[in-house]
Amino acid sequence: xTLASTSTATIGEMREFASFEPNEQRYIKxxxxxxxARSDAFKTWGRRxxxxxxxxxxxxxxxxxxxxxxxxxxxGAVGDVERFVSKVLRIAVxxxxxxxxESFSAFRFLYERLIGAKARPYLPxxxxxxxxxxxxxxxxxxxxxxxxxxxxxxxxxxxxxxQAFYPERIEAAEAACSNTARLGAGQFNRLEMEPLVDPGRx
Length: 202
Known about the structure:
By secondary structure, this protein is mainly α. It has helices at about 5-20, 20-35, 40-45, 50-60, 65-70, 80-95, 105-115, 125-130, 140-145, 150-155, 175-185.
């Protein structure tokens, strides 16, 4: 992958992130801090007692991420898919119950980074399974399920390109950067699951 194509991909990911709702952006950054062990999430995100409780639970749930990454199916064997999906579904249910993720695009953006690019083919199924459970409020369930486009649900293939942009909190500049990114995004439409690999980008 050339430097130019890498830069283009990074800009595209930044614009997609800027298209998410502020609460989705915040939850994604918090989740990456916890899932990738980037920083102490209690100090960065625990503004209130209820948030600290949620963060504590998230640390516990995300302990499964290491084993989940090792379970991503290589060839789509039924047994491997079952083990992977059942394991990641528990994590996905927790994330959707927090209501910090309101769309499949934001869910995919987060889970590509938590688990890796090889998980892309299975994310629509995981998302639908978690979003359809009765533990999700009916109104939230409807919002989530309606956010999954037909193109994403029926894609014949997925890109294997690794993610280039990992958003994180920058204390003083966060608000200014968010506003700048939104202005730069313009009329950018949210990306759904990337269809078939583009040879020019690999």
